[in-house]
What we know:
Blueprint: H1 23-67, H2 72-88, E1 90-95, H3 100-103, E2 109-113, H4 120-125, E3 131-135, H5 144-150, E4 154-156, H6 163-175, E5 180-182, E6 217-228, E7 231-232, H7 249-256, E8 262-268, H8 280-299, H9 309-318
Parallel strand pairs: 1-8, 2-5, 2-6, 3-4, 3-5
Antiparallel strand pairs: 6-7, 6-8
Helix pairs in contact: 1-2, 1-7, 8-9
Amino acid sequence: xxxxxxxxxxxxxxxxxxxxxxxxxxxxxxxxxxxxxxxxxxxxxxxxxxxxxxxxxxxxxxxxxxxxxxxxxxxxxxxxxxxxxxxxxxxxxxxxxxxxxxxxxxxxxxxxxxxxxxxxxxxxxxxxxxxxxxxxxxxxxxxxxxxxxxxxxxxxxxxxxxxxxxxxxxxxxxxxxxxxxxxxxxxxxxxxxxxxxxxxxxxxxxxxxxxxxxxxxxxxxxxxxxxxxxxxxxxxxxxxxxxxxxxxxxxxxxxxxxxxxxxxxxxxxxxxxxxxxxxxxxxxxxxxxxxxxxxxxxxxxxxxxxxxxxxxxxxxxxxxxxx
Length: 323
């Protein structure tokens, strides 16, 4: 009986062999993963403490400026929000005409913006001189209420009985020369679309606020968070910036503040004159068209330019607002 054939053994090349790894190197790799999470948590804690310290330092100074005449209180509020963005690690890019030149005509401006997060407040407040319009519940939040009062925030209720009083208060602010931020969606979205604008919010745009009886100008503004970890934000990562539903502001800040390379883009569209629109609904639709088309372009990481009403209608027909 012949002997069985010898089995050939695979010959491993030295270059393909896995190098020996010491126990210390293996533990270092595992420890580095844990250190990465610890570093992110420490980054969020550091940013939160710095923003809190800056807020406590700015509150008494702003309280003094509110008691003094002049625009110092408006300029300092803008500086405060701008520095909050810097402490948060959020870079803000602005595209479009600066509205200071438009305001020189003597007419105040109502900035109409899409709304997806509480971060919209420092982003917009740090670039534009205007007061925010917030729901009445904000006035009862700890610390946030103090910041809102120092920023001369206008509170509104969701009851029809108080609509006239709130409209008169906003009209008085505009007549005094202040600009206002308006979020006509009525709530925050998930950042992937612009919700329909409610025409009832545009009632302030029909009120005469100048000496010659002209209404304020309406400025459409698109705000999109388009960078995360220095890379373009997509549909999977953009909800990190969004604050909607039952989210609480504390946990949302904790998640967002752990990341680096954040950027928001503010797209300023040409202002609209409410007197040139036949109805309030037509003004709301034209404003929504410009805001939604500009936000869709920014979400797709394409070069964005300010959109007028004429081109905005065509743009909205070519691509949907959801992108």
